[in-house]
Amino acid sequence: MRPRYVVLLGALLSFGVEFAQRSIPGRDPSFGDLLVNTISTAIGTLLAVTAPTWLWAPPRRSAWQARATAVIAVLAWLGTGLMVRQSFPPPPYSTVPTPDLQNFGHYEGEIVTVRPGLRALEVVAVATPYAPRQTSPLVALLDTQQTRVVMLSLDGTDLTLRYSMPALRYTLEQPDLRLRGAMQSVAPGDTFVAATWHDSTNICLRLNTRERCHLGYTIGDGWKLIYFPEEAPAWMLGLINTLWMMGCVIGVGFWAARSRGGIALTVVILGLLMVPLVTGLNATPVIEWIGTLAGLGAGYLVARRYGLGATSQLGV
After folding, report:
1. Which residues contact 310 (CB under 8 A, 6 or more apart)?
2. Domain boundaries 94-216, CATH class
3. Residue 238 in contact with residue 287, Cβ under 8 Å?
4. pTM above 0.70, yes or no
5. pLDDT, tens digit (0-9, with 9 covering 90-100), for 133-157
6. First vs last Cα of the chain: how many Å apart?
7. How far apart are the C-alpha atoms of 147 and 162, rounded to whole Å?
8. What pLDDT does residue 113 have?
């Protein structure tokens, strides 16, 4: 198809989606979304039309493309760390038990006592007959603009924590930290103690005697800033983290196979090691190292299997 027709179809599809949102509860049409979707269609069309030029580049240009892809990946990892850092607005703060907040549930149980604090927050509550079906705050610290500073919640049998971070200012998702299965041993009507505390390097959650520290985010959590499925099990989140890391570097492996890729590979390895140290993210776990190496390997194998042959066929 001619490129202009592709862009037109993309614009019409986006217009149809935005128009349909006029009658979908909880959704609002946006001209900005229509504009960005159309521009994205144009970018995708441009990439497809120019694919022979950049996908099967000669060795010298492949080396530079591998380095650029590695730098972009490391910048994405840096952005992840910057977006999820604790960033508290100026006080004063108000302590609100079981707040009614948009997009969150309302905890129906009784709150006995609250010991408020920015670095240590504790609440004593009574368990409800049924576990909350969505994230329901036990207590929240709010600033004068009603911005959530710290929020301790229950979601099913999980104890969750959310705190103010730059991602909120940029209308990104806010992935939570969880103590999974914390409420499994708490019977309906029982009184329980939920608490969180932190210092500059360590975040902890506790429910009664069950406690977990060193909670935090890793560079593989970057995709959660785009979409965070709260109901997803831990194994699925870990799998997506691994796939995210693969996707970040598969281009590095592809173009490194067609050139001298030592510099690009060094940038990736240094990023895995240094980004957590610079941004305060947790150290890159083994599963994300495996995902990165798998992405590099997959890109290399694709280049050796298909890319080099395409080069000779195109006469590049």
Report:
1. 52, 55, 56
2. mainly beta
3. yes
4. yes
5. 899 999 999 988 888 899 999 999 9
6. 25
7. 12
8. 94
